[in-house]
Amino acid sequence: MSKATRIPIRTQKAPLPPPFLSQGIIVGDMVFCSGQVGVNPATGKMVEGSIQERTKQILNNLGAVLEAGGSSLQDAVKMNIFLADMNDFAAVNEIYAAFFEDPLPVRSVRFPSVGVAYLLMNLGSYMRCGQDIANGD
Asked: Which InterPro entries did the record assign (predicted)?
């Protein structure tokens, strides 16, 4: 069995990753993104304000990585959303809906255990995704 070629994705339009991971990886016709949080890539700081503002930034960050990999949020197949507070669910959905068109990606939303919730405490939410590269068909 031959080993698939992995092509790293790197863009200044999303927060630069720590040295132990890539923003994304292309393998064949698939793009896989590292999880994103609401960090503004221009400042390197977490967006202040509401969960809606952070959600917009997260989706903009994911979109930037996907575009750098030849894809887009519209090609998303699967989204994983992690929320620190289940009371933010409706607010996140409101912003999320504005970023996607039919057919919508499949999705899972997780409200973490106490340990993970502690890690997300100052982030509010975290998202990751993977999908096919748009082929122009």
From this structure: RidA, RutC-like_sf, YjgF/YER057c/UK114
